[in-house]
Automatic annotation (TrEMBL):
Keyword Transmembrane: yes
Source organism of the structure: Roseovarius azorensis
Recorded topology in the membrane: Multi-pass membrane protein
InterPro entries assigned: MetI-like, MetI-like_sf, Sugar_ABC_transporter
Record family assignment: Belongs to the binding-protein-dependent transport system permease family.
UniProt xrefs under Pfam families: BPD_transp_1
Keyword set includes Lyase: no
The protein, known as: Carbohydrate ABC transporter membrane protein 1, CUT1 family
Amino acid sequence: MEKTVNQKAWFLVLPVLVLVAFSAVIPLMTVVNYSVQDTFGNNQFFWAGLEWFEDMLSSQRMWDALARQAIFSAIILAIEIPLGIIVALNMPKRGFWASLCLVLMSLPLLIPWNVVGTIWQIFGRVDIGLLGHTLDALGISYNYTQDIRAAWVTVIVMDVWHWTSLVALLAYAGLQSIPDAYYQAAKIDQASRWAVFRYIELPKMAGVLMIAILLRFMDSFMIYTEPFVVTGGGPGNATTFLSIDLVKMALGQFDLGPAAAFSIMYFLVILLISWVFYTVMVNLDKREGK
């Protein structure tokens, strides 16, 4: 006797699918349409085929922006993941102080991205900013609008300040899921602190850390508002990441065809790397389930 499957639950998902279609799929199809056509205005389009994709693949400008973006994301992950783990390991486990730490760690995540950029833009100014004025008083040359190293340091520190809390909270959630019996057994065996971290805490945090890496990679690879507000992509093109370069191409130069092809390749790169992370997470969960 065949088992009857009730498919009525799909009607509950239907509104979400319709919303996604209007907010994501339809705009994506519009971008695809622009990427294979050319226009001279007056809503007149001409078939261009893969011309814009070929131009973008041979464009040194795109590859330079991609290199800056990859370097920025790599630095962000190399700093925020270990720092978030260290913060989570040193947070109180229970009681009032644990609740207070969780609230304080959540505060940076609640600040809008444009406000974060404005805060650090003012914070780093030599004339009125606390950071810029202090460094100037100490005789340290710091000008994020003219010095490339200062601009990079400012953008990186700003992102670390804003998003390390997310990694710390995820790692903390993973630590809280570890039964006390594991620590008691390690204490009986006189395991070192490093051994406890290596063989108990780190494996239990592996799943949430992969989620943290995935989220931080996607966000850092698509970052736009904060560096645009602080540096505007400068000095020169030093902090012109992929998203900033794409906006300049589409809105500043009104090159809709190249910008559409650029955005599709941008989307595919993020999708590919995210799929790799997801595959690793699934395989990790399967190994833990055995």
